[in-house]
Amino acid sequence: MEDQQVPQPAEAEATVITLCGSTTFEAEFAEVNQRLTLEGCVVISLGMFRLPELPDYDWAVDPSDLKGRLGRVHVQKIRMADEVYVVDPGGYVGESTRREIAYAQSLGKPVRYLSRERSST
């Protein structure tokens, strides 16, 4: 009779965290991403921090609604997360980020803030 392997208990799944905040805080996003990853979290961040230079593309007109598409992708990232982490150095939260926070809260997702963690240490 062959030795049967006993199933091992599954390790606890990592917490999935989506980062939200102003694209002007690229360095802070990288710092938070690294810290949370080292803590064992799966981090979902922004796909880009600047709009790409596209030949013959007029961002003022945005005929293909690329900005809208990028926004919808970020909303999906929020849905995929267990929680949202707001990268808000100095407490700055812009209008888009406020909408993302409200959306996350409407889904019952916990929301943490970089500025509140820094001020409590």
Layout: helices, strands, pairs:
Blueprint lengths: L15 E6 L4 H13 L3 E3 L21 H15 L2 E5 L7 H12 L4 E3 H6 L2
Parallel strand pairs: 1-2, 1-3, 3-4
Poorly predicted ranges: none
Helix content: 25-40%
Give the name of the CATH architecture. Answer: 3-Layer(aba) Sandwich
Compute the CA-based radius of gyration. Answer: 18 Å
Q: What is the string of helix and strand elements?
A: EHEHEHEH
CATH topology, what is it called?
Rossmann fold
Q: How much of the polypeptide forms β-strand, as a percent range?
A: 5-15%
Shape: globular
The N- to C-terminal Cα distance equals 59 Å
Q: What would you note in describing this structure?
A:
- This protein has 121 residues and is of the alpha/beta class.
- It has one domain: Rossmann fold.
- It is 38% helix and 14% strand.
- It contains 4 helices and 4 strands.
- It has a 4-stranded parallel β-sheet, sandwiched between helices.
- Strand 1 (16-21), helix 1 (26-38) and strand 2 form a beta-alpha-beta unit.
- The radius of gyration is 18 Å and the shape is globular.
Short précis:
38% of the residues lie in helices and 14% in strands. It has 121 residues and is an alpha/beta fold. The protein is globular and about 60 Å long.
